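User: I'm new to structure prediction. If I give you an amino acid sequence, what do you actually give back? Let's try with this one:
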Amino acid sequence: MGNQTFSSLASLTLRQLRKVASDLGVGLYSRKSKEELLDSISQQQEFSTGRTRLETAISLAEMETSFGDTPPPPAETRLVFLPRDPQWAYVFWDISGESRKAAAAAGARQLCLRVSDVTGLQTGASHPHTLQEVVVDSNATEWYLPVPLSDRDYRVELGYRKTDGGWFSLAFSAVARVPALHPSEQILDQFVPFSLDAAPTTLPAPVESGDSSLHERLYQNATVRWRRLGRGSEAFHEIENNNASNHGLNDSGIGRWASGLNESGIGGVAPRQRSFWLVADAELIVYGATDPAATLSIGDEIVPLSVDGTFKLQVPFRDGQQLYPIKAVAADGEQTRNITLEFERTTPEDNSNTPEQAKSEWF
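Assistant: Good question. You get back a string of structure tokens that encode the predicted 3D arrangement of the chain. For your 363 residues, that looks like this:
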């Protein structure tokens, strides 16, 4: 490139140089400084077959100077929060000149991002003691934020920490869900009432009780009056409970009998020997809804209700009969509603065992 042409380019503004670079096909020209653009244009010209495009671009850039600089559109203060993965999120923002002036007049000292946990809350609210403040560079327009806890909803606020310790807010992001770090442990189906005559409707998601032993107590109360000889494997467990350790039985009634071995085992030498196992069971789901202010009981146990009055219990479903008398009493104690559910399970055959109980078999 000749000195005359290079001098003409050097006299152009950064915006005019970007126009020249665009016409010449220079990549990423909008991110380069003036010196970098001059160097890139020079390198591009060395691979060009002629100077026609460059001279034309320079002529256009010189013509553009006669029209004056067009002011860019005013910036709008905004903030965008994008979860990247369960541990990191990406945040970018724009701050208008008016917002910067207002912040400076209020005594703004340091630009910051505030991360709030808003899981399960109404718009504008956040969980107490979850606010995290991250200091960022005053000239930055993007930032990577560490996520406090995965599988939660977060909202980010952009603002300035003032010299007096106060806070000057600029913008809020939309609420976004950070994905879970591990696969969900919830694998149960959601039971939905269904009718061929009407569109299906979904019950509000109930909350589980925090009492981990409630389900077992309900099951024991539901089955205690039905236990008797000859009624499924539950009665068999009660009879053999004292001798279970001697006969190799556990609570589910399986052990070495399930593997097909007898007391003395199998003698001799067989050409092949392997262990094998199988586990299977069932649970019973009792669910429903009533007035949120009512008192709900199943037998002698009080069952907690969710805020919308729904409840759901997963109880063991073992062999035998189970009886669940459900009763709801109004808050004033003057009205009651009740329903009794009865279930029965039988296991005609049980040749199962756990991996720990699996024993080598000769065959």
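You can read the tokens as a compact description of the fold. Here is one thing that stands out. The chain has eight helices and 16 strands.
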